[in-house]
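Recap from last week: sequence in, structure out.
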Amino acid sequence: GNVAGAFGGEAHTVSGFRGGAFGGEQSTVTGTNAFVMGGYDNRANASYDGVVGGTSNQTNGAKSVIAGGESNNVVNGDLHFIGGGGNAQITGNARWSGIVGGFGNILSGGQMSFIGGGRLNQTSGASQAFIGGGESHIVSATKGAIVGGNNNTVASGHTNSVVIGGDGLTTTKTNEVVTPNLTISGSGAIL
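Predicted structure tokens:
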């Protein structure tokens, strides 16, 4: 048989083979070996997916987990993690990537990329990309990174480039570090 079930909570739908819903309310589990634990209106739709707490979170990428938050979505791809935050989205058949916290962050395509907090940040087709906070950033280059600031861009093709802080900065080439001001102080400073 199906060997699936709902344990505690109410109004669950569990149809995935060996799937389960534990506590919470209105969970849907359609993925094989998938589960939802707690929360409200969460969905585990692909194989080996899990959603733990939060509201209106949804996994459609295999072997992915969403832990808490609201309206987070793994659209496709596999081996992802979204931890908290709201309206985060992983799409474009990305793999091995994660978003932790923040609001409205999107990881699209590429592999092994990470967005850590902030608001309205996006990686676009970039593998091994990193955004660490800030707002309205875009990283489109492999191994590109943005650390803080607002409205900064690591442009496509600018591999290994980084923007540190600032507002409205854009990389211009490969292997570049862009920052608006740099102050080096201390006894070991080289001037």
